[in-house]
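Sharing a chain and its predicted structure for anyone who wants a worked example. Both blocks are below, sequence first, C-alpha cells second.
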Amino acid sequence: MPAVGRSEIEDVFRADHGRAVAVLARVFGDLDVAEEAVQDAFVAAVARWPNAGLPPSPAGWIITTARNKAIDRLRREASRADRHAQAALLHAQDQPGQEGEEEREDPVGDDRLRLIFTCCHPALGTGAQVALTLRLLGGLTTAQIARAFLVPEPTMAQRLVRAKGKIRDAGIPYRVPTEAELPDRLRPVLAVVYLIFNEGSTASSGERLVREDLCAEAIRLGRLLAELLPDEPEVQGLLALLLLTDARRAARATPGGDLVPLADQDRGRWDRDRIAEGQAIVRRCLRRNQPGPYQVQAAIAAVHSDAPTAAATDWRQIVALYDQLLALAPSPVVALNRAVAVAEVEGPAAALALVDGLDLDGWYLFHAVRADLLRRLGRPAEAAPAYQAAIARTANAAERAFLEGRLRTVLPP
C-alpha cells in the first residue's frame, strides 16, 4: 500500500474535519467532546496512515476512530462519577450507530448545517456564534478566525473559550431548531457561510491563494440554505454572491500560483455557467425589492461579471451600489471597497482621501489599497512603506509575492 504524506492527511483534514465534528456533536450532544475526539482521531491518522496508507474511506475512518476514542475517554471519566461524561455516553447510546442509519426527522437534514444552526444559539453573541462555528465546522485556526474578524489572536482565543464555556455552563443542547426558530438564527448562519467562503477564496495563510475545499463547502451550504428557506431573499443573495465570486476563481492565479488582479484577469476563463446562475438569482432578488447586504454585494459582483473587459466595467453603478451597501451595513471594510470603485470614477486622489479616513491599520488590504493609490499618484516614496506594511500583515504566500513585486516597482533603482 503506498505511503501517505503529511500533505495528503492535511487535505483530508480540510475536507472532512467539519463533517466529523458535526457527526460527533450529534452523536454525543457535546461540542467539546466532539472537537477533542476528532482531534484525537487525526493525531492517530498522522501516526498510522504514513505507513499503512489511506483507508478506503478516510472520512469514515476518522469518524469511527473519533467515536471510539470519545467513548473510551467518557467511560473513564464516567467511572469517576462525572455526570457530564455520563450524560454524553447516554446521549451516544440513543443515536444511530452507523452513518447510514435513518435519523430522526428535523427541518435540517445535514449534520454540518445543523451544527451551524446549533452554534448560532441566541444565548451567544453574534461574533461568538460565527467564530465558534468557523472553529468547529471550518476547522479554521484561531489565527485565521482572528484575521477574519480583524482582531488580535489572543482576543479571539478568549472569545472562543468563553463561547464554549457558555454552551457548557448553560446546558445549551445540540439540537435542531424548530422551523419557527430558523429565521431568527439566520443572520449569523449566513455570516458563517460567507466567512467560510472568504477564507477559501483568499486563504489567510499558506502557499495557495485559494482553498477550493472551503469554497465548495460554502457553496454547498448556501444551496442547502436556499432549499431550506427559499423565501428568504438574503439567503438567495448570499448564494448568488458566492457563485459570482467563485466564477472568477480559475483566472485569479497563473498556473504557477501567482496572483492575478481583477483588471488583468483573462475573462474567458471565468465560469459562464456559474455567472448565468448567479445573475439569474440576482434578477429574482431585484424583482422582490427587499434589498439586503448580501443581495447588494451580489449585484456588485453581477456588474463585474457583465463587463467583457475591465475597461468596460460600469464603475458608476458599482459606486452607487456601494452607497446602498453602506446605508444597509456601514463598516470600514465596505467603505474601503467603495473607495476602490471611487478611484475608477473620480481618480486615485479622491479615493486616497477616503482611505486615509479609515481605521483599518491591522488589515493588510487597507495598506495594499493605499499603496496602490499612492503608486498611481506618482508618489513612490510614500507607496513603498505602505506596501511594506501590507506585506507584514499577510501570511498568504501568493499575496505576499504579488505585493513584493509591486513594492519593487516603487523602489529606487
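Comments welcome. Residues 97-108 have pLDDT under 50 and may be disordered.
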